């Protein structure tokens, strides 16, 4: 009997993870659909920076010059795009 319960538990965890991930993705997409493109691009670019910060503190990920440069350039590009879109709208 212990073999069947272990197999049931092993299959329940991935199914629950997929359900939670799909719900989170749906809510993220639903929320972003009501935002202008400039604000949604700013939010999506800052998620990269927050991921990098959390990786540094939680996992003790060591940053190289290339990874820091990539994060800064991607955020800078999104900020410039957001500012440029605001000028076009006015």
Give the secondary structure arrangement, pairings included.
Blueprint: H1 2-32, H2 37-58, H3 65-89
Helix pairs in contact: 2-3
Describe, in plain words, how this protein is organized in 3D.
The termini are far apart. The protein has three helices and no strands. It is flat and about 55 Å long. The mean pLDDT is 79. It folds into two domains: 1-34; 36-90. α2 (37-58) packs antiparallel against α3 (65-89). By secondary structure, the protein is mainly α. Belongs to the purine permeases (TC 2.A.7.14) family. Keywords: Membrane, Transmembrane, Transmembrane helix, Transport. It is a multi-pass membrane protein. Its main location: membrane. It is found in: Membrane.
Silhouette? flat
Mean pLDDT: 79
The low-pLDDT segments are none
Q: What would you call the structural class?
A: mainly alpha
Number of strand elements: 0
Strand content: under 5%
Please give the largest β-sheet. Answer: none
The first-to-last residue Cα distance is 69 Å
User: What is the radius of gyration?
Assistant: 20 Å
- Domain count: 2
The share of residues in helices is over 70%
Q: Treating each run of at least 4 consecutive H or I residues as one helix, how many helices?
A: 3
Helix-strand sequence: HHH
Membrane topology: Multi-pass membrane protein
Main location: membrane
InterPro entries: EmrE-like, PUP_plant
Family: Belongs to the purine permeases (TC 2.A.7.14) family.
């Amino acid at each position: 009997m212990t073999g069947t319960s272990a197999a049931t538990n092993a299959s329940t965890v991935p199914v629950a993870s997929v359900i939670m991930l799909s719900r989170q993705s749906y809510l993220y997409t639903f929320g972003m659909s009501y935002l202008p493109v400039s604000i949604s691009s700013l939010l999506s670019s800052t998620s990269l920076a927050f991921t990098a910060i959390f990786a540094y503190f939680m996992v003790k990920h060591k940053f190289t010059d290339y990874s820091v440069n990539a994060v800064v350039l991607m955020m800078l590009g999104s900020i410039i795009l957001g500012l440029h879109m605001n000028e076009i709208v006015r």
